[in-house]
C-alpha cells in the first residue's frame, strides 16, 4: 500500500491541472496527486462523480487528503465520499487549508512521512506564513 | 480612475489563467484581474518582468492587490514593484493570504467597495473558514 494520496478539487480544471503539474515538478513521482477540478466535461464547477473517480484511483493509498477551494467543492467532496465504499471512506480527510499552498506543503511533507497528523500540522502553519520555495 | 486591480502570481500560468477565468465568471467585468503566473515563456516559475507588465496594466486603478502562491512569487512581486515608477509603487500591496481563496474573496468584495482595508479584512477571515460559493 502506498502512502498518502492528494486530491485537488477546485471549480477550475485549469487550476487543479496546473497545481498537479507544479507539485509533481517538486516531488517527482513520490506522491500520488489527482486533479479533480471542474465539472465532468471541463466547465467551471465541481463534480461529485469526478471526485469519486479520483478517490477510487487512490484506493491503494493508506490515507487520502482532499484539498478544496471553496464551499461547494467541499460539498461535492463530501458527496463523493458518501458514494464510495466504507473502507475507502475511512481513509478520506477533507483538509481545512488553502488549495494551492496547502496541497503543495502537504505533498512535500508526504514525501518524508505518511503520518497524516504530521502533514496536517504543516498545513496548519500556513495560517501564520506563506510556504517557501 | 477605476477601483481595485487584482494581480495573480503563481508558479503556474495554468493556475492564474484558471483563477482569472473563475473570478471573471463570478464578477463579470466589474473587477480588473491580471494573470501573471509562470515565467515569460509559460514555464513553471515566476517572472518579475511579467508581473511588472501586469502592474502597468493596472496603472489606472486606485489600488492594486497582489496575490502570490509561495515565497519566490512574493520575491518576484517585490522586485516588480521596485521596477515600476513611484506613483504606481504606492498603489501596490502584496496580500498575506492564499492565492485562490484570497483573490476570489477580494474580487467579490472589490465589486462593492474600493476600500482596501475592508477588502483585506474579508481575506483575513479565510484564516477561520473557507469561502462559500
From TrEMBL, chains A, B:
UniProt keyword list: Kinase, Transferase
InterPro entries per the UniProt record, alphabetical: DhaM (IPR039643), DhaM_N (IPR012844), PTS_EIIA_man-typ (IPR004701), PTS_EIIA_man-typ_sf (IPR036662)
Catalytic reaction list: dihydroxyacetone + phosphoenolpyruvate = dihydroxyacetone phosphate + pyruvate
EC category name: transferase
A Pfam family hit: EIIA-man
Gene Ontology molecular function: any one: phosphoenolpyruvate-glycerone phosphotransferase activity
Superkingdom, natural source: Bacteria
Subunit record text: Homodimer. The dihydroxyacetone kinase complex is composed of a homodimer of DhaM, a homodimer of DhaK and the subunit DhaL.
Protein name: phosphoenolpyruvate--glycerone phosphotransferase
Biological classification of the source: Bacteria, Bacillati, Bacillota, Bacilli, Bacillales
Gene: dhaM
